[in-house]
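Any chance you could type out a protein's amino acid sequence plus the matching backbone structure tokens because I've never seen that pairing?

——
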Amino acid sequence: MLTGFHIGVDYEIGVAPDFYFAPGLQFSTKGTNIDFVETKAVLNYFEVPLNLVYKPLLGDGNLIVNFGPYLGYAISGKYKDDIADTDIEFGSDDTDDYKPFDMGANIGFGYQLGMGLSFKLNAQLGLINILPDGDSDNLVKNNGFAFSVGYRF
């Protein structure tokens, strides 16, 4: 895995005491080190997380537990090595490197301080093969882990 970043916004809609539906929009970088050729694949996505959030009161703040699906669409990508950067081609043809559409599941745990500042650990599990010609023997999925710092207005 590669170290990357994500930035985004979400909106919490109350559905029951301590439970919220939180749709959002974020920009995420994902990728991998391709060991056998000493190359990095860096993929940039717009994602729409659709999380259910449980936020019970805990001390002066709130515990945060979230889970739900995400939908993603690749907007750009590069293969990077010591010599040059090469653009990644997205599409569904056999000549393309990856499919642009991604889909998976989110899970996160954290704490929101009383002043709105929050800290979370998140994980994403990609559920679809992003290789255009992929099958069960030729499989690439986006999986990731993140540490997030946020602020709730």
DSSP finds no helices and ten strands in the chain. The radius of gyration is 17 Å.
